[in-house]
Design goal:
Length: 413
């Protein structure tokens, strides 16, 4: 349930059997280069991965890659990171998957850690103007995500109505429980109302993951999801509370990086761990760096006021938010080929994707719009940033820089 739609797998494509093995450091270096250069968000990241591993290196067929992307979309977590992790597993087993994740994630995580150290400079003067500009560009980026996802995931009246109802529920009853309920309701509605659509192809992934290893990964996922919260409460440990909040966000977010925003906001801002202005400024900075948007968690872990913060807090939050998605995709690898061909699973997926659009639409209003747009000039800057992204197709990093500069100039004037 991530924000892109997988290309249809070619029917009758040959299975992928016993792919060649690659070493840990070779996989790490390949993905490190991708992590340094993959700008543009999850859709672009999947394009980079396809170009590198299907077109250039021929590590897998077009149909097998499409099948792998479909697997990443079916579950919570960041599609690009899950797809890259699975490609690493394909070529180097579990160590190869960890190397792929580390290489792809490390550059943006380090940049977000550096950004967190500058968060205290944003309280007044030019720093405050830059922060306000970053908050306005966040409006444009989330609006762009809603615009693009609505066209892809809500192509008919039924799914558009599901999205509107999901947004209404979250605006009237804003909470993490409501968000989970909306996702479950979307799955149920999709199961009943969204039976029509293209069917899955016949490609096989060809991963060497034993069913018992997959079941073990799924068991660890469930144990952490159910156990971290009570353990954090029982011990009073802020480190465990930080890990639990990050893990819960990564485990429950459907729709990719942008949809994690409301879950993280409700965990970090009302609790007083991080100010709302700093939260939105960090989210905007995350648009300008390469690699997965989930590295925003590194900023939050580092910038929060309570120990552990800094590099240690960044590491805890980063591991917490990525771990559930990696456990889920590793656990599903042995079973996905049979499951994804079931029409009921495909129908439920269509309904959940429609609910995801509604979740993001509600987040666009609160906390994004309500915290950033206060005057006609604010709206003008946000609208210009949106046009730059959607109409002029400027790179996200450039739009972030220009809007932050506009905020700084507005303070100077």
């Amino acid at each position: 349930m991530n924000e892109t739609s997988a290309p249809a797998a070619t029917p009758g494509a040959a299975a992928v059997h016993a792919p060649a093995r690659e070493g840990f450091f070779r996989i790490l270096l390949i993905f490190l280069r991708l992590g340094l250069t993959s700008f543009g968000g999850p859709v672009a990241h999947l394009g980079y991965l396809r170009g590198e591993f299907v077109a250039r290196r021929r590590w897998m067929s077009e149909a097998a890659y499409a099948d792998l992307v479909a697997l990443a979309q079916f579950m919570p977590g960041p599609a690009s990171s899950q797809t890259g992790f699975a490609i690493g597993v394909l070529r180097g087993g579990l160590p190869g998957g960890l190397a792929a994740w580390l290489g792809f994630t490390l550059p943006s995580a380090l940049l977000m850690l550096l950004a967190a150290h500058g968060a205290g400079l944003a309280g007044s003067g030019t720093g405050a103007g830059i922060v306000h500009g970053l908050k306005l560009v966040a409006v444009a980026v989330v609006a762009q995500a809603v615009w693009g996802m609505a066209g892809t995931l809500c192509p008919d009246r039924r799914r558009a109505s599901m999205a509107v109802l999901a947004a209404l529920a979250l605006l009237l009853l804003p909470s993490a429980v409501t968000q989970v309920a909306v996702i479950l309701a979307g799955a149920a509605a999709g199961f009943v109302l969204c039976r029509e659509g293209p069917q899955a192809g016949d490609a096989r992934l060809g991963f060497r993951v034993r069913p018992r290893d997959g079941l073990a990964a799924l068991g660890v996922f469930a144990a952490l999801l159910l156990g971290l919260g009570p353990l954090a409460i029982a011990t009073g440990s802020h480190a465990l509370a930080l890990a639990e909040a990050s893990y819960r966000a990564g485990a429950l977010v459907f729709g990719g990086g942008h949809v994690v925003l409301p879950l993280l906001e409700r965990a970090f801002v009302p609790s007083g761990w991080i100010p709302a202005d700093t939260f939105l400024a960090g989210y905007a900075v995350a648009q300008a760096v390469p690699g997965p948007l989930f590295t925003f968690a590194a900023f939050l872990g580092a910038a929060q006021g309570s120990w552990p913060n800094g590099a240690l807090g960044a590491g805890i939050a980063l591991a917490g938010i990525f771990l559930p998605g990696l456990l889920l995709i590793y656990g599903m690898l042995p079973f996905w080929d049979g499951f994804r061909r079931r029409p009921a699973a495909q129908a439920a997926l269509r309904g959940v994707n429609a609910a995801v659009v509604g979740i993001l639409l509600a987040a666009l209003f609160d906390p994004i719009w309500t915290s950033a747009v206060h005057t006609p000039a604010d709206f003008a800057v946000a609208l210009a940033a949106f046009a730059a992204l959607v109409l002029w197709r400027l790179p996200a990093w450039l739009v972030v820089v220009l809007t932050a500069a506009a905020g700084a100039i507005s303070v100077a004037l």
